[in-house]
Amino acid sequence: MSPLITDLAYILVVASVVTIIFKRLKQPLVLGYIVAGFLAGPHMTYTPSVSSMEGIEEWSQMGVIFLMFTLGLEFSFKKIVKMGMQPILTAIMIMCCMIGVGGMVASLFGWSNMDRVFLGGMLSMSSTTIIYKAFDDLGLRSKRFASGVISVLIIEDILGILLMVMLSALAVSRTFQGFELIKSLMQLGFFLLLWFIVGIYLLPLLLRKAKSYINSETLLVVSVGLCFLMAVVATRVGYSPAFGAFMMGSILAETLEAESIEKGVSSLRDLFGAVFFVSVGMMVEPSILLEYWLPILVLTLGVVLGQMFFGSLSFFATSGNVQSAVRSGFSMVQIGEFAFIIAALGQELGVTSQFLYPVVVSVSIITTFLTPYIIKLAPKSANRIESSLSSEIQSLIKHGKTFAVNRRVDRMRLSKGLAWKRLLSAILSQTAAYLTISIALALFSFATILPLFQHIVGEKYVNIVGLFITLLLLSPCIRAIVVKKNNSRESKYLISSGKMAAFLVRLLLFGKALLGFIIIFNVVSSVLPLWWVWEMLISLAALVVIVLSRLVKYISIRMERTFKQNLRLREQQNALSYGKRLRGKDLQIARVKIPAHSRWGGKTLAQLHFGKTDRVHIAAILRAGHRINIPGGSHRIYPGDVLEVVAGTEAIESLRLRSEQEVLPLQERNKETHNLTVISLKLGESSPLIGHTLQDVDFRLRYHCMVVGVENEEGHLGIVPAKRQFMENDIVWVVGEEADLSVLSMVI
């Protein structure tokens, strides 16, 4: 029998015995897998060992692929985009700090410069797979802070690819080449955007077309096949197969079949994930531990204490929440698979010392052992840190949160700054997407279509036919680059707001047209060997035809509409028909009481969106003996309310548990004052209220204030009808809390 089969059978048997023992001892399974790997590995002389480590490494690589694939299914790129810059900034701060920690430790022991650089890279990234598994074992994966941690880990993995490129260039040239870094960054962005756009556009369409032919077995085969296909593609273009698997998971996460795929792949993930962690345990070498015990100990302390301090500090700097920051920072106290990849890269390039790889593996094993215990320690540590903060610091933190919220207040009317922000954001994102597709289609045409038609139409006409087909493929993208957002609300507003703004907007629109012309000119000059003047005239004529063509306009609109529908399909399906996934016997009505000091107090059902987050219907609100049946999205809930919810057992328990957890900390209770104040505000000529009615503005919902009246020339207050328009020099009297009134006064 093949050693690959016998080794797999042996390690699974050992792993099953050890994990049962660990389960009985109520310890995380990850630790059991690592211990099983040490017992079955070649460095444990008292027990039988595997015969081929190469085969085990292949199995473990499959484990990493499945772990990253399921991670992508649960946490799509769209969720990261919605979180904004917070996870990106957090990841960058943590990585920079930990690179410094690695360099300092290497300098302490007098290691070479290349050892310092590579060691810093190894310590800069925490292990996505280990943390993911630890959260799963400890039942923390659904927690809000865990979502933020996973976001940062994904960003770290993406930045890790750039780091590997930098280290490779540094190892070869011994100098830092900024151009190579920029080139690698652009290449990574190109492939990320291309894979995401093409995947979101094509895969949901293909799955819908083949829906009648796909059952659970076929869906498993198709999804795993796509996973390994993307892993192969990622490897061919210079990235890790795990990165490709994650990308395919994030694409399939937007399809209606995502939950079925996740359910089918979960068994494979658990099986091969176990093999991966067992293979990590096999790397433990007792002789290395004895010889380099001091560097290993110092590095372990550096990783644990560095991540606990710098990680918590980085999360706090971007979120302002002590509890969440400490729990997040404490969760990242280990290094993992990327450290092994960077260590192997250093050895392959021959620039790092031989002892560095086993030392880093040993540090990874020890920190993996410590991870579950430190995660359990985090809540108590967070409470102690929060309680030890002085009242001035707590007030400063609170003020920072209020300031951040106030900055996001909607100003009702389009200001110049907001208009520029929206216009530039839309143009940049759309141009980047369509330019990426254009480049990919042009390369595809040159590589396949031109050689194909060379055999069909011959050498004489191949260039003309190839040019026509290439421009036909590119035309929807070129038209979108040139035309989209030219007549948008923002561009019209800016053009009418002043001569300088109008000039800049028209210059921006000209730049878009010029970019479309450049794309066509490059295609024409690559296919037709003509005088450059003729090439420019042909390119200009083609641009005019593409912009004016109604057929191209129709195709472009259909393509973009299909992409947006595919991107939003799962969210819309979840919002409209999540109850259909319940079986009739699971449906029940239960009561959930909102505790005192709940963070939900005063929020509307639309703001809390229980349907999306908890998969429950709110059937009624019970308050002080009164019942509100079938409440709408504008109804608010308050501490002490009792919610009657309709859902399955698990969803109800999840909502009840979340309601008990989302309460104000002891330090924040009874500290806020809620004094109502009445102020008068005079409307100037630039006030956004002018021309709007009280009904349009909706002070209660938007600013949490109430208009008492408008003062006339004699100083008397008059009641403001809902349809009365505000005018210049109106003196409006408003009642509300001081914080809300200060925001309102800045807006108007």
Contiguous low-pLDDT stretches (5 residues minimum) are 400-414, 575-582
Strand percentage, roughly? 5-15%
What is the CATH architecture descriptor of the largest domain? Up-down Bundle
How much helix, percentage-wise, in residues? 55-70%
Count of the domains: 4
Shape: globular
Backbone structural class: alpha+beta
CATH class of the largest domain: Mainly Alpha
Q: Care to give the gist of this entry?
A:
By secondary structure, the chain is of the alpha+beta class.
Could you describe the 3D structure shown?
Helix 3 packs antiparallel against helix 12, helix 8 runs parallel beside helix 16 and helix 14 packs antiparallel against helix 15. The chain is built from 30 helices and 8 strands. The strands form 2 sheets. Strands 1-4-2-3 form a 4-stranded antiparallel beta sheet, with helices on one face. The protein has 4 domains: 263 residues, Na+/H+ antiporter like fold (Up-down Bundle); 145 residues, no CATH class; 81 residues, Regulator of K+ conductance, C-terminal domain (Alpha-Beta Plaits, 2-Layer Sandwich); 72 residues, Regulator of K+ conductance, C-terminal domain (Alpha-Beta Plaits), CATH 3.30.70.1450. The protein is globular. About 3% of the residues have low confidence. The chain has 748 residues and is an alpha+beta fold.
